[in-house]
Structure formats: C-alpha cells, structure tokens
Amino acid sequence: MTDEPPRPPAPEAHPGERATRRPRSIDPRELGFTPRRPVPWLAPLLLISTGLRTLLAMLFGAYLDKRELQNAFSDGTFRQVGPDGGLWLDYVADLGDGFDATYSVAYLLAQPELTVDGHRLPRAQTLVMGGDQVYPAAGYEAYEDRCKGPYQAALPVAPPERPTLFAVPGNHDWYDGLTAFLRLFVRTRDRHFAGWGTGQSRSYFAVELPAGWWLLGLDDQSGSYLDDPQLTYFDEVARKLTPESKVILAVPAPTWVKAVDHPNAYDSIDYFIRTLVAPTGAQVRVLVSGDLHHYARYAGTDRQLITCGGGGAYLYPTHRLPEMLEVPPRDTLTRRASTTQEYDLAARYPDKARSRRYGWGIFARLPFRNPGFTTLLGTLHTLLMLAMAGVAVQRVGTTEQRLFSVPLAIMLVLAMMGAVFFAKPPTAGGKRHARHWILGVAHGLAQVALAAGGTWVWLQLPFYDWPWPLPAVAAVVLYGPVSGLVASQLVALYLLVAGAFGVNLNELFAAQGIEDSKAFLRFRIDPDGTLTIYPIAVDKVSHAWQLNPDQSPTAPWLTPKTPLTPRLAEPPIVIR
C-alpha cells in the first residue's frame, strides 16, 4: 500500500465545457441537467419497484457484489492537510432527492465561508458524502439530475485550493450493484466531481488527517458483511495506526440505533473496530453515518455516535429515538463482541416536540404529495364499491357489467392483504411482530368499513339505477376521486396511530416528503489535535432560485431569492 501526497490544485483549463459555460437561464438545456421534484415515495409504481429492488438486493446481493473485484484497484491511502497544518472537513449524507433541498445544502457547502451563530466557518478542504447520493435508485440519469448536477451548479469549477471528495455508498447506491457509484466516484481519469476532486480508488477509503487523526470510510453492503479485499486493505491501514491515533469512522447506516430492534445490526462495525483498530491501541472517537434523515448524537465516555442524514432527502422523525443505547447490544449473537457501553442521547434535530408536530402534517401532505397513491386508493375503493353494490342489490346485470365488477371476495382479500403488507413492507427489514399484524388487520378492516359506508351512500343516490355503463362512468368520475381522498385520510390516520407504536414510522414521514429541517456537519481539526464538530441546521430550504449575477468561474450558478439562514443544531462538540 502506498501513500499519496496531497493533490495539487487542478488547473482550470480542463474543468469541462458544462462547468465553464455559465447558464443564461434556469432551463434544463442551459443547466445541463433537469432539476427534479422530491421523490413521491408512495407512488404505486415506485413502491413496487423499490420493493423489488430491495428483494433482489437481499436475494442476489452477493452475486452483484463488485467489492471482490476491487482487489485489482489501487490500494493507496490519502493525506489531507490544510495550509495552516489543520483541516476543515464537511460531512453530508442522503442528498440526492428533490432539487430545492439538495441544492440548498450544496449551496451552503460550496460557499467560501459561512457565519453560523457567530462562528466563522470557511469552506472545507475535504468533503465526505456519507451514503445514498441518489434516490430512488442508482443510475446515470438519476445521479446527473439529483446529485452531480446540483453540486455542479453550487461549485462549477475547482477553486484554487481544490477541495477533495470522498464518498461512502449507501443502500440506494447499491441497488445497481454499485456500478454507477464506481463510475462516478472511483475514476482513473477526469478525477473530479463538479468543483471537488475525487480522491478514492475503491468504494471504501482511508485518509490520514492532521495531528494523528484518521478518517476511515467503510462499505458494508447495507450491513451484510465486510469483504476480504476490504479487510485486507484496512489491515494495511492498521499498520500505520498507533496508540496516539484517533479515528473518525464513516459508515453507511447508524447500526447502533438499528440494533435496538435488530441486535445483530452492529456486528460488522464491532468486528471491524475489535479486530482491526483496537489491537493498534488507536481509539475510534467518532462514528458518523447517514441513512436516517435527521441529526442525532449519542455521547459515551470516549466516543460520539452521530447520525446526520440531512443532505436533501425527506425528513425522518426524531421523537421515537431511544434516550439511551447499549452498544454493542447485550443480546447480540456474536460471542466475541466488545464490552457493552452505554450512550445517552445528547442532542437531536429537529427536537422531539417539533418532530411530533411534523407527524400531524400527514393529513394535509399525503394526498397532495402522492397523487398516484390517492388515485390508486380511489380506484380500489371504486371497484370495491361496485362489488359490494352488486351483492347488496342482488342484480345480475348485463354481461359487460358482470365482467366489469370484480367479485367481492377477491376485492376483500386484496384489501386485507394490501393493508397487512403495508404494515411491514420489504424495505422495512427485520421480523414481523404481533403489532404489525394487529395494526395491519385493523387498517384493512377500517378500509373495508369505509367501503361499506361509501357503498351505502352511493346506493342512496340515483347513479346506480342509470342504464349501463353510465353507473360505471359516474363511479369513476365522481366516486373515485372522493373515495380516494377520504381513503387517503384514513391511511393518514392509520400512519399516525401506527407510528406511535413504532410501525410505519418511515412511511409516516416519507409520505409527507418534508424538505425542511436539513443538516450537515463541519469538522475542524486544529494543528494541536483538537476536533470541533459544528452541526449546521437549515430550518427552511429555498424554493425560489435566480441566476447569480456574479460571473466568476467558481461562483454558484443559482442563488436563493430569500437568503438561507443556517444555525447550529447544538453547541459545537469539542473532542481532545
């Protein structure tokens, strides 16, 4: 394994045509990418495709795993040091969603300096992307529109000091077997990502920082295992660690939180620390991840566990976070696990009360953020009503009417199965418990009861007595939209109740697509080894952009019409 010296500033003679030609309008043809709306996570086709991708990743992940092939890649470590002997380093994760939220964060990251609650914070010399750089699935077009394009607009070409980018793949980056991720972040030529130089040679990396600090980025393929080439790579890295070394470990998911429900979730990280880092005498002082789209910090006696997935994706709640964690959990099946330590929840953003208030917004946001889902509900309720009406009036009808009306038994089974399946979708992971069955069945019965009530109301109206096919047309035009909207409110009520029991929490917030309450981290390593972490929060993202009158090459293409006002999610965390 070889060390690589700090990369010299890249000459701006070859930044790419798209970067040097500043756009004259916000038209996608001028920008070179299409700003995307937030992903409608309850869209029927998206629900199906996401479920299938998750299933394929579970069943065939080992066959699609490209990490074994990376043994042929370069195995260098890297060194990052600022001109004053210290270093500024940014961490952002879960960023490739809707343009407004993603670009609001990218715009702040790219600014030459931020003033946050009286602290002057210069632009970082190193940027770490912590996973899920794109949604809903990896692909060239998705990366261009939802990730690279917004960051290109924020920092079109490299400034003289040329910051460096390292990236950890998340589960959404893995949905194509890591193909697009490797092509974008692990390159042998054109080693740049917008105005950042790309530094890594594999899907994982090791970076030597000032004053004995190290940054290690792991790729554990959604918590499955650490492959042999990766372990061999970090074996060589470990030879350079000493008892004076301090480690920042960037991982794809906060398995210390997920281990509360899935005790084995933390095993691969514990194995890495226990077998590779601990024998050197070095200490892992900070564990940082994205995956959960909020900011949360758990503090232990000598380690900080930080989740910061606020780079652009929909907000995930904080009010259900446990107040204390045991890491590793005592009931893990790993016999050689490290000694269990207790960690207290020291800070979260948004705060508990605000997170709970966000949950109540489901009634207003669900039907309008997910029109396809509302349409699907209306279609299903229309078919269910026609089936119930046919049984209620005991009318044989014409052949066309009998073909159009789905048998009631089939509709009832579909309604109940859909509700039970929704209570524990494949993307949720883990085992199905009694609460999932109870809440799922209760939700299904509530939807059937709503359909029965809607059928009774419909039969009181004159439409059903019209000659065929006018009843079906009236049902589609009138009953479908109304029943879809009402059913969506019943789903919203279910999600709110289920969320109180820890069920469908992700769906409760994914359905709302909340773009506000974003966050990223800015680290400062002083030459004397003091590490200061500034958790930067953005309460409101911008939804209105204008061309930047500043025509200098490194100036962002677009600026917010109303200035963004970042603040600290909590006071700076100082580690010595």
What would you note in describing this structure?
- The protein has a ten-stranded mixed sheet with strand order 1-2-10-11-12-13-15-14-17-16, with helices on one face. Strands 3, 6, 7, 8, 9, 18, 19, 22 and 23 form a nine-stranded mixed sheet that branches. A two-stranded antiparallel sheet has the order 4-5.
- The protein is built from 17 helices and 23 strands.
- By secondary structure, it is α/β, with parallel strands linked by helices.
- The protein is 37% helix and 18% strand.
- The chain is globular.
- Residues 1-14 and 398-404 have low confidence and may be disordered.
C-alpha end-to-end distance: 29 Å
Placed side by side, the strands forming the largest sheet appear as 1-2-10-11-12-13-15-14-17-16
**Contiguous helical run count:** 17
DSSP, total strands? 23
Regions with pLDDT < 50 over 5+ consecutive residues?
A: 1-14, 398-404
Tell me the helix content.
25-40%
Determine Rg (CA atoms, Å): 26 Å
| Overall form | globular
The amount of beta strand, in percent, is 15-25%
Structural class: alpha/beta
Overall mean confidence score, pLDDT: 85
- Sheet bearing the most strands, described? 10 strands, mixed
Protein name: Metallophosphoesterase
Keywords: Membrane, Transmembrane, Transmembrane helix
InterPro entries: Metallo-depent_PP-like
